[in-house]
Amino acid sequence: MSAFSFHETKNVISGEGGLLAINQPQYANRAEIIREKGTNRSSFFRGEVDKYGWVDIGSSFLPSDIVSAYLFAQLETLDEIQARRKAIWQRYWDRLAPVLPEFDVHLPFLPEFATNNAHMFYLVCRDLAQRTKLIAALKAQGIHAVFHYLSLHDSPYFQRKHDGRPLPNSDRFSNCLVRLPMFYELGDSDVDYVCNSILSHLSAS
């Protein structure tokens, strides 16, 4: 089984929801039932049973027709969407990579064995203070840049379960990572404006 998210921050979106990909029929059949409120309704519509009822646990996981149509249109142009996102990602990289190290700001690291799905473009600042000032400076320029997730071990729920060992890498990225705007409609001039605003702020700091 493999899961794909269609949350609004992803490359292909439907607001919320996702896709479950299954390559073994016995699991696919049960997943369909769970998706259909625990019923074998889909089998009934295919004429495989003469009536349908509740045969397992389940919930109402089906998207509406409008959401499905919105998502399907994107899936039909997935190659185009991905090509544009990769172009945006590369433009950020080309503009920022030669300059940012002198400000002790780092860019994404892609190992040689990895591919780039252009899901996000982020910077890793020197510390929390630098990131806070950068986000504020970009906001003043009308640019919506955000920090990423907080460390799980610092969340209210998991604090009680954490054994107390230090997790410096988790803390560092929670405090220092900032995500730049990344969406299909972002134009080259928009990317340049973001980059120029970043460099202007850092140069003046």
Automatic annotation (TrEMBL):
GO terms for biological process: polysaccharide biosynthetic process. GO terms for molecular function: dTDP-4-amino-4,6-dideoxygalactose transaminase activity; pyridoxal phosphate binding. SUPFAM superfamilies: PLP-dependent transferases. It holds the Pfam family DegT_DnrJ_EryC1. Keywords: Aminotransferase, Transferase. Belongs to the DegT/DnrJ/EryC1 family. This is DegT/DnrJ/EryC1/StrS aminotransferase family protein.
